[in-house]
Specification:
- The structure holds two protein chains of two kinds.
- By secondary structure, chain A is α/β, with parallel strands linked by helices.
- Chain A folds into two domains: 97 residues, Beta Barrel (OB fold (Dihydrolipoamide Acetyltransferase, E2P)); 181 residues, no CATH class.
- In chain A, strand 2 and strand 3 form a beta hairpin.
- In chain A, helix 2 crosses helix 8, helix 2 runs antiparallel to helix 10 and helix 9 crosses helix 10.
- The model of chain A has no long low-confidence stretch (mean pLDDT 94).
- Chain B is of the alpha/beta class.
- Chain B has three domains: 95 residues, Gyrase A, domain 2 (2-Layer Sandwich); 215 residues, Succinyl-CoA synthetase domains (Rossmann fold); 189 residues, Succinyl-CoA synthetase domains (Rossmann fold), CATH 3.40.50.
- Chain B has 19 helices and 19 strands.
- In chain B, the strands form five sheets. Chain B has a six-stranded parallel beta sheet, sandwiched between helices.
- In chain B, helix 6 links the parallel strand 4 and strand 5.
- Classes of the chains: A alpha/beta, B alpha/beta.
- Chains A and B meet through helix 3 and helix 9 of A and helix 1, strand 2, helix 2 and helix 17 of B.
């Protein structure tokens, strides 16, 4: 039996309070997604290579390779164990509980302003291209066109945000959903970052919070289930631990702390971390502008 | 133009794999454009914009994987698609591939009865137990793990010694056994020179220089960094010397280490006296007289150690490119540096490479600080803040706690490099870039944007900033040595041809008459 190391509070509650049953949705080297039979929600089992995240249980395994778990394998709770067929047994009693609590947007933005400059500079140098960050040599016309549209649409969304154009927010955001070839499309990743900032308590952009929820209600068919779940959670202020750490560091930490936290975010996916970080920057710059 | 579209329902690849597959697919011969991506409405819109929309693409949904291959001619389309499909299949089979894995040393020893060597890299808490099991199964051991007590190290090495086995480590990161590099090592020619080393990058440097001078390696035996301490007593180095002395293929032996504890040095030198083969001793900052008295060949630098070894091995001196120091360049740089630019800042991934440059600087300056200085008066007060001449070993525990070693991820130096580059008192920054097994796939590439930024900044401020880069690697290493060096030179970095030359160049460039301290 494998032990769970830590788990999202909501997921642990679902496992304990309900007789959780599900099926395997998708399997990767470091993450395994499960679709709940009760409501279709996606939950994730992550290896120790991953950080805590909404709807996620981190289990004491380095890799999920060689477990022979396949799509549609059944998943169920039995006593205190989560079972995937007879291929994996996970004890959940050992899991420490984790929940994302986003920080409050500070009234003094001196540190933030400096950190935004430094983080942008670092992304410029070391962010991964292929998504929001345009590659100097795109591998195909498709990639070049995707980058062009991402740039155009994120600029529209950012400008609208800075000019309090509430009427256009929903459409501009929806134009980004599903844009990008990856498992979590670049447009979705950017929105995860942006929504995170909008959801901060005291955020000058908080007027957009209800609009994030309305985007979520409409967007489901526009992207895949995994990305939808991530974005939906972000719209309610629930993001993975590395993103949370970056936001905290940028709001009130030093330049060094911000860059250290940024490096962990940049390591997410292929260009996903870069796209998320650019979404955070967009929201923080809008906050700085709107907050005076 | 011909297009083939295949839609795979509810198929998911992680983003890193998708990007990698997409890049490879676009490089397949005959492919004008390949798209591998999720079938979202927005992506379909992009496909429409680039003129590749088909009825099949229209029907794809957000959970489907779309594969679109465009070729110039219809007769190429099917074969191009099959090549793309093969990439996907290989990716899947690589994921599903099940190598034989053994959960314990005992089962591995039973499963592979011919094995005689175990490389162990587990949490320090379990390392002793696993190493003991391996030795009990008559396996030589290379123990990469650290956090092993000195008492346990002595016990393991004594057990190995009594059984006639090698106990390399704990904390042994470099070895070449039977021409196979283990953990961090370089691809080098097979030859007649054997190395016993208590220092990882020091032994890599000596092996690489031997290769460069036309020689080759029989075995490179690592001992672990603590072997020459008083407590351990050099058990492994003594056994290593004996093993190479008994090895027919080895004609010359090279010892590499920081200076041993005095009583241990005596034992090692006594062993040299008994050795039937010439022994070159490179103990950084070591004592020449004692080595010579023991009948050894003393080398002050890594380059000298390699050169002496290849000459003793019979390589014709006339054919060796000794990589002489570029003296005119030193004068040129001195003239460019302002009087305020007095200091060297060494930022190293390799501990021994750092040590070598530091010791060379200490020969001329009395204000050399480091996080690995032996003299406590010259230990940095704050490792994040440089003092006068400063040499940082980024592989030291201070910097690696919870992070990968900088040879695996050299990006840990970036911020410090930019910090040093802004300091108007800095004349020279010297850095190493380590290639080979276990190291980063593009160590120069990682630093390049920061180097360019630093150069531009200095230029803007009207300063000349001299950056020296040394790439530790051979012409048969991966990544390609020549490419890595070219990247440095193209970015305006002065390329040093060896660790020794890097240290000498840095020292001499800031050494002006009126700044000599």
């Amino acid at each position: 039996m494998i032990h769970a190391k830590s788990g999202d509070n909501y997921f642990l509650q679902q496992l304990v309070d309900r007789e959780f049953t599900g099926t395997v949705h998708s399997v990767f080297k470091h993450a395994l997604n499960i679709r709940s039979v009760a409501d279709g929600e996606i939950f994730t089992l992550a290896t120790t290579a991953m950080d805590n995240a909404p709807n996620t249980l981190v289990i004491d395994l380095d890799t999920l390779d060689n477990l022979h778990i396949k799509q549609n394998d059944s998943v169920r709770m039995k006593r205190d164990q989560l079972l995937i067929e007879d291929k994996l047994q996970i004890g959940i009693q050992t899991a420490t509980c984790w929940q994302c609590h986003l920080p409050i947007f500070p009234s003094d933005t001196t540190k933030l302003k400096n950190n935004v400059v430094q983080v942008k500079r670092f992304i410029d140098l070391y962010g991964k291209s292929g998504g929001m960050k345009r590659s100097d040599s795109p591998v195909s016309e498709f990639e070049a066109e995707t980058s062009r549209l991402l740039k155009q649409r994120t600029t529209l969304l950012h400008d609208g945000l800075c000019n309090r154009r509430l009427d256009s927010f929903q459409q501009y955001a929806l134009d980004l959903v599903g844009l990008g070839p990856g498992l979590t499309p670049s447009g979705d990743d950017f929105l995860v970052g942006l929504f995170t900032i909008i959801l901060l308590e005291g955020s000058p952009c908080s007027i957009y919070q209800p609009l994030c929820e309305s985007v979520i209600k409409i967007m489901k068919p526009l992207t895949n289930d995994i990305s939808y779940t991530t974005l939906k959670k972000a719209a309610y202020g629930q993001v993975r631990e590395s993103i949370h750490s970056l936001v905290c560091a940028m709001l009130s930490g030093t330049e060094t702390e911000s860059i250290q936290a940024l490096k962990k975010v940049l390591a997410i996916g292929s260009s996903s971390g870069t796209d998320i970080a650019l979404g955070l920057i967009s929201g923080l710059e809008a906050n700085i502008k709107l907050g005076g | 133009m011909s297009i083939k579209v295949v839609i795979k329902r509810n198929t998911y690849f992680d983003s890193v794999s998708l990007m990698s597959l997409s890049t490879k697919a676009n490089q397949i011969e005959g492919v004008e454009q390949a798209i591998i991506g999720m079938g979202t409405e927005m992506n379909k819109g992009v496909i429409r914009n680039v003129g590749l929309m088909t009825p099949e693409v229209e029907e794809a949904t957000a959970g489907d994987l779309m594969i679109i291959v465009k070729t110039a001619n219809a007769d190429e389309t099917e074969s191009a698609y099959l090549a793309v499909e093969e990439l996907l299949t290989n990716k899947n089979s690589a994921q599903a591939k099940s190598d034989i894995k053994y959960a314990t040393i005992d089962s591995a020893a039973q499963g592979i009865p011919d094995a005689n060597f175990a490389v162990i890299s587990v949490n320090g808490a379990f390392a002793v137990r696993e190493a003991r099991k391996a030795l009990e199964n008559d396996l030589h051991v290379m123990l990469f793990s650290d956090n092993v007590s000195v008492e346990d190290e002595v016990e393991l090495k004594t057990l190995a010694h009594n059984k006639g086995l090698l106990m390399m480590g704990p904390d042994c990161g470099t070895a070449i056994i039977g021409n196979t590099g283990l953990c961090f090592a370089n691809a080098v020619r097979k030859g007649s020179i054997g190395i016993v080393a208590a220092s990882g990058t020091g032994s890599q440097e000596v092996s690489v220089r031997i290769h460069d001078f036309g020689g080759g390696i029989t075995q490179l035996i690592g001992t672990g960094g603590r072997d020459l301490s008083k407590e351990v007593g050099g058990i492994m180095m003594l056994d290593g010397i004996k093993a190479l002395d008994a090895d027919e293929a080895t004609k010359v032996i090279v010892l590499v280490s920081k200076p041993p504890e005095a009583s241990v040095e005596k034992k090692v030198l006594a062993q040299i006296k008994e050795c039937s083969k010439p022994v070159v001793v490179y103990f950084i900052g070591g004592n020449e007289e004692a080595v010579v008295a023991a009948g050894g060949q003393f080398a002050k630098t890594s380059k000298e150690a390699a050169l002496k070894a290849v000459l003793l091995a019979g390589i014709d001196e006339a054919g060796i490119n000794k990589r002489a120091l570029n003296v005119p360049l030193i004068e040129e740089v001195r003239a460019k540096l302002s009087p305020e630019q007095k200091y060297i800042r060494g930022l190293f991934c390799g501990g021994t490479l750092c040590d070598e440059s530091m010791y060379l600087a200490m020969e001329k300056f009395n204000n050399v600080y480091s996080n690995i200085q032996k003299n406590p008066d010259f230990l940095l007060k704050d490792i994040n803040v440089s003092q006068e001449h400063t040499f940082i070993d980024f592989g030291d525990d201070d910097f690696t706690n919870g992070k990968p070693h900088p040879m695996i991820d050299p990006s840990s130096r970036i911020e410090r490099f930019l910090q040093e580059a802004k300091d108007p008192s800095v004349g020279v920054i010297v850095m190493d870039f380590v290639l080979g097994f276990g190291s980063h796939e593009d160590p120069v590439g990682v630093m390049l944007p920061a180097i360019i930024e630093a150069k531009q900044l200095a230029e803007k401020e009207g300063r000349h900033l001299e950056i020296i880069g040394y790439v530790l690697g051979t012409d048969i290493d991966k990544p390609n040595l020549e490419d890595q060096v070219k990247k440095l030179i193209d970015a305006g970095v002065t390329h040093a041809s060896s660790s020794t030359n890097a240290g000498l160049l840095a020292r001499e460039m800031v050494l002006k008459g009126d700044h000599h301290e």
